[in-house]
Design goal:
With 137 residues, the protein is α/β, with parallel strands linked by helices. It has a domain of 77 residues: Nucleotidyltransferase, domain 5 (2-Layer Sandwich), CATH 3.30.420.270. Helices cover 35% and strands 14% of the residues. The protein is built from 3 helices and 5 strands, in the order H-E-E-E-H-E-H-E. The chain has a 5-stranded mixed sheet. A hairpin with a 5-residue loop joins strand 1 and strand 2. Helix 2 runs parallel beside helix 3. It is rod-shaped, with a radius of gyration of 30 Å. The termini are far apart.
């Protein structure tokens, strides 16, 4: 003999719409938080000297060096800023994807480094980096 409940039987339902709302809210929250996060890395490095050995230079990249007096060097050749600009403009017309490495003496003024960086960016090069010595393990 079967016993029946006096209450009508209800089918169980999984409410998915509130679940979707919660998931969209979490997604939006994580996106907003990740946009405001900035990764800051500060490491202590000594910048290399402006003169380097010939084995450090490769033909598929541009090496610009600065010494403590603020003089610029194209590989090992001293250049003035207008001369550097004309050389970089010619090189940009040949290959705009050429990487440029700026190295400077540890006593080089920050303003001199930024002046060269601004010149490079104004011409249009996108791959620019500063040479640094790796820290000793």
């Amino acid at each position: 003999m079967k016993l029946r409940s006096p209450l009508p039987a209800k089918k169980s339902r999984l409410e998915i719409i509130p679940l979707i709302d919660v998931m969209f809210f979490l997604l939006a929250s994580f996106m907003m938080v990740s946009l405001t996060m900035t990764k800051q890395q500060t490491i202590g490095v000594n910048l290399p000297v402006a003169t380097a050995t010939a084995k450090d230079f490769q033909p598929d990249m541009i090496n610009i060096g600065l010494n403590a007096a603020g003089d610029a060097f194209w590989d090992k050749d001293p250049v003035t800023l207008p001369d550097l600009e004309s050389r970089l403009t010619q090189r940009y017309q040949l290959d705009a994807q050429t990487p440029i490495y700026i190295s400077g003496d540890e006593d080089t003024r920050h303003a001199d480094m930024i002046r060269v960086l601004d010149l490079i960016r104004r011409i249009g090069f996108a791959k620019v980096a500063f040479n640094v010595k790796p820290s000793a393990p």
